[in-house]
Amino acid sequence: MQTPTGTHAVVRDVPRTFDRAIAxxxxxxxxxxxxxxxxxxxxxxxxxxxxxxxxxxxxDDRFPDCPFVEDAALLIGKKVIITVPGAEARRGEIVxxxxxxxxxGEVHRIQSPATLDxxxxxxxxxxxxxxLSRRTNVHALEQLRAxxxxxxxxxxxxxxxxxxxxxxxxxxxxxxxxxxxxxHLDQPGFARFQKITVPRAEAHAANCLSVNGTVLVPSxxxxxxxxxxxxxxxxxxxxxxxxxxAGGGLTCSSIIFDMVTPR
Length: 263
Fold this sequence. Notes:
The chain has 5 helices and 15 strands. The chain is of the alpha/beta class and 263 residues long. The strands form 5 sheets. Strands 2-1-15 form a 3-stranded mixed sheet, sandwiched between helices.
């Protein structure tokens, strides 16, 4: 079964201020920064074990959410697209990310009044699904269309309801299979896909990370993991409880891409 592949992953370390990250809701217990670092280290180890070369960016204590590097940039084809994060307090994160990624592609920048979080962008082959959410607006959708207009990609607009990002409710596993949390996204754009439905009690399992033949699944989601394995995928379970308290999922902490030859 064909699954998403990559050679490299951009990751960013957990800052000392991570307990001040923007949380979608007040967690029952405070974020444990040291435990978050341990979970992030394990996440990085697993990515390396799956054949990815890590490109590391140092943590910046000024930006508590900076480990969620996915939101700061997109790598689509040969283009590096620097975002304008929807949370104003996160916009300084993009500086170090752009400095790191400029050697890996042609740099383009989303411009205000557009706002765009990478967690709202899901690429599946030549289709790029863009979630219109609290963090990503229609101006960003239009700018992405303009940036990619000669590259053969189909840009699909998706309305996002009652979750933070598009990838909070849908992630791609491979073939024609997605993980799906019912009730939060427009159905028509995903009509052709087989949907592995996530039980409401395991809602955070809608954000899985499929790379190089293996699907990373958050711990504590046995029903979802069983359904993914029943569909023919190999899985690894990862504990991301502290990252989850800040609204993070498995895709949030990396930007995975294929690099053939640097510019």
